Amino acid sequence: MSVLKVVEILGNSTESFEDAVQNVISEASKTVRDIKSVYVQDMQVAVKDNKISEYRVNTKVTFTILEH
Questions:
Q1: Are 39 and 28 in contact (CB under 8 A)?
Q2: Which of 17, 20, 22, 46 is the most exposed place for a label (fewest CB within 10 A)?
Q3: Closest by alpha carbon to 24, among 37, 9, 6?
């Protein structure tokens, strides 16, 4: 039996959506072990001077808290 937990984490990057998701994983893994998946719930960009200035993602990170 496994027990999983899901937390919502926002991430950003000036490079790409992929980099924003990787930033979420990198930061979450500093305090959360055994990350199983990341669901990207929403994506958006910030615009400055008619150009994308920042990529933003709203994610749900799933990880194991108990495993038998």
A1: no
A2: 46
A3: 9
Read off the tokens for 36: 């199983």
**62, burial (CB in 10 Å: exposed 0-12, middle 13-18, buried 19+):** middle
Strand ordering across the sheet containing 2-13: 2-13, 51-67, 35-48
- The Cα 5–Cα 62 span in angstroms is 6
pLDDT tens for each residue of 3-31: 999 999 999 999 999 999 999 999 999 99
